[in-house]
Amino acid sequence: MRPSWILFALRDGWRRPLRSAVAAAGVALAAAAFASLLAFQRGYRNGMDAELGRLGAHVLVVPKGCPYDAASIALHGANWPCHLRPEHLLGVRGVPAVAVAAPAFMNAFPTADGGQDVVVGVTPDLLGLRPGWRIDGHFPRADDELLVGAEMAARRRWSPGQVVGMTALPGRALRVAGVLAPTGGADDSFVYLTLESAQRAFSHPGGITHILVRLRDPDLLDDAVSQLRGCEAGMDMNIVPMTHLFRTIQELVNSTRLWLGCVAVVALLVAGAGVANAVLMAVAERTREIGVLRAIGASRADVFRLFWMEALQLCVVGAASGILLAAGASRFVESWLRSRLPFAPTDALVRVEWSVAVATLAGAVVLGSLAALMPAWRASRLQPIEAIRNPEDFA
Question: What is the reported pLDDT for 72?
Fold first, then answer.
C-alpha cells in the first residue's frame, strides 16, 4: 500500500470521532485487563522465587497451626501466638538430613507512624542460610548489640557503633553492631538481637517462634521431611517444606489468575465486536466513496487494506491507552490482589514492563486483524457501478 493510502486510512479512521473513541475505549479496557494479567502472572512468579531465595531455607519448622500463616509471619514479621521449646530444636538438629537449623524468636511492635518494628532473636547459624548478606560491621555477639536492616537504619539514621534506644525494648541502651546491606526483602526492616537477649527481653526464656532448616541434599526433601516428622519432637511441630508450600500457594492463586483471565477474554471479545461494528458502519456510510475509489483504479486489495488499517489503528490506539491505564492503576490492582491472596511476596506483584507492553500491542494487532476481516472483505467485494448508483442497497 502506498504512503498516500496509509495517510488516507489514518485520516478516515477518525471521521466519526465519538464512535471511534468508544471503540478504542473498549479496546483500552480489554488491553488494561490483559496487561494487568500478564504483569501479575510474571510478578507473582518472580516474587515467590525471590522470597524462597532470600529465605535460604528448604524447610520451616513452626508450632502447630496454619502453615500459610506461619510462612507469612516468618517472612514478613508479626507476633507469634505460640512457641517451640529447646527440645524441639535438639530434635531437629538430630536429624541426619539437616545441615543447618537456625532458631529464631520474633516479636513485632506497632510504631507511631502506623508501621511496625520487628525484633528477631537469632544465633550465628542464620548466617549459614544467608550467604548473600553483606554486613557493615559484625553480627551481634553480646546482649546489647543489634544488627539493623538497611531500611530500618536509613529510617532511624543509625550507623555502626551508635548507641540507640527502641520503644520495643524500653530502658535498654543498645549498640548498633552492624548494618545489613539492602536485600530487597523483609530483612531490610528487621532488627536482629542474639537469641538469648530477645528471649529475656520478651519474657520467653527458651522460647523459639520458628526454626529455619537447610538440608544437606535439597533433592531428598521428601525423605528429610519424613525424618523430621518422625523424630521425637515431630508430633509437636509443623514441618513446612517451603518449595511444596509455595507450589501449593501458586495452585491456589491459579483460581485468581483464571478469574482475571476470563475477565480479560470477555473484554477482548466485546472490544473486538465493538471495533468490527464501528468499521462495518463506516463501510455502510462510505459505500459510494468505495465505488468511486474502485472506479478510479483502486483494487480490491487496496480497499481491504484501507479498512483493515482503520480497524488496526483503533486497536493500537486503544491498546496503548490500556497499557498506560494498567501502569497507572497497578498500585490499586496490587493492593486489591494482596487483600485476597493467601500469601503475597514483598516484591511488586503487578509490574508493567516492556515485555508486557509488547505482548499487549501484539495482541491488539491480532484483535484488530480479526475484527477487520468481515467489514474489509465486504468493502472489497463491492462492485463500483452498483455502489455508486445504489449505495443504500449495501447499507
Answer: 59
Do strands 145-148 and 190-194 pair parallel, antiparallel, or not at all (unpaired)? antiparallel
Q: Rounded to two decimals, what is the model's pTM?
A: 0.57
Q: How many residues are given for the chain?
A: 395
> Cα–chain-centroid distance for residue 200?
39
Kindly list the distances between the CA atom of residue 274 and the CA atoms of 7, 22, 225, 268, 287, in Å, as whole numbers in the listed order. Answer: 23, 8, 56, 10, 20
**Model confidence over 125-148: pLDDT tens digits?**
988 888 778 999 999 988 889 999
Q: What crossing angle do the helices spanning 242-285 and 17-55 adopt, rounded to 10°?
A: 170
Domain residues of the chain, as ranges?
3-50+248-394, 109-211
| Beta strands 135-137; 210-215: pairing state | unpaired
Phi then psi dihedrals of residue 299, to 5 deg: -85, 170
Distance in angstroms (rounded) separating the CA atoms of residues 394 and 40:
46
Q: From residue 132, how far is each of 19, 55, 100, 126, 187 by CA, in Å?
A: 57, 11, 16, 12, 12
